[in-house]
Amino acid sequence: MSTHGPGGRVDPAHPGDPKTIGPYRIIGRLGTGGMGTVHAALDPRGVRVAVKAVHRAQAQDPEFRARFRREVALSSRVQGPCLVPLLAADTETGSPWLATAYVPGPTLAQHLHAHGPLTGGTLHAFAAGTAQALAAIHRADVVHRDVKPQNVILSPAGPRVLDFGIAHAADGTSVTRTGVMTGTPGWISPEHYRTGTAGPAGDVFAWGALVAHAATGRLPFGSGAPDVVAFRILSGEADLGGVPAALREVLEQALAKDPADRPTAAGAAERCAALLCAQATQVLVPGTDPTLADDPVRAAWQVPALHDPAWPGPPAPRRGRLLLTVAVGAAAAGGLVGGLLALPATRAEHA
């Protein structure tokens, strides 16, 4: 399911769209697909969220509903850098939904179409950040299984990996139709084509293809019919021309045909972080906050913030509360991050 409209902006709500879903007020759409719609919404405090609502017809299918429950359960297990936290969900209502923090910005696919490949520190930050996200996913014993340009948002603070619609537990249990290939052609590992195996190493293979695509704007195994792309993945070499030499070495290993020859996501993240740190001081410009050096991904990231006037501004404070708001503002800002990290991953048990 697509989660972002063109350029990552909010589209107007359609006739018949709900006014509210759970505690959230719907203000527009972020994307839609055959399985459901992702709405732009505000929580009761005016905080922006993304609410993924399943089409009612899909919700009548017990198998699909079971898959959606599993998506929620797996998403709630995963927390870490460069991921989008799950906030709440209701898997038992007539139209199941889940809510995640809203992340502004285009997908990688949208950015490449509009602006071309990533370069310099931004490219290395992309490689490190997405590998860190996969490492966090794998530490939770989850396999993503759909790493692709449409599932990575380029936020102002760094890349964010999203969408666990076809994820499964690393123990191999999943809720999918027997014999159905999962994933997207061009981003499927050789072993998945051969045997249907979809382990952490398959995510690393897709990550290697993803970073190569970000660096060049080209599909590393070309385009064409799915069976033609599959043949190239099984027997051909990825097109890595134009990838910086140091990064290319990591990607060549990630794209090895034998999963045993690939690094882990954590290993790839460590190597990319080292490459990034080696040039971090070079990408910092005069006036940059020196504290960002503690976060190399954010320090090197050069993707502008997205302004979307479709989002309403924060509600004006009541006059009688203005002084109180000012007094507690700094404390609230300081405690917000800690509060979010301490929050249980599932609240409305339960994106």
Could you explain the architecture of this structure?
With 351 residues, the protein is of the alpha+beta class. The chain has two domains: 6-102, 2-Layer Sandwich (Phosphorylase Kinase, domain 1), CATH 3.30.200; 108-283, Transferase(Phosphotransferase), domain 1. Helix content is 39%, strand content 13%. The protein has a six-stranded antiparallel beta sheet. Mean pLDDT is 80; it is low at 172-180, 288-293 and 316-351.
Compute the gyration radius: what is it?
Answer: 21 Å
Strand content: 5-15%
Give the overall silhouette: globular
CATH class of the largest domain: Mainly Alpha
| Helix coverage percent | 25-40%
How is the secondary structure organized here?
Layout (H helix, E strand, L loop, with lengths): L19 E2 L2 E9 L3 E7 L5 E7 L1 H4 L2 H16 L8 E5 L6 E5 L6 H8 L4 H20 L2 E2 L8 E4 L2 E4 L6 E2 L20 H6 L4 H17 L9 H10 L9 H10 L10 H19 L12 H5 L21 H21 L9
Antiparallel strand pairs: 1-2, 2-3, 3-4, 4-6, 5-6, 7-10, 8-9
Helix pairs in contact: 4-6, 4-9, 6-8, 8-9
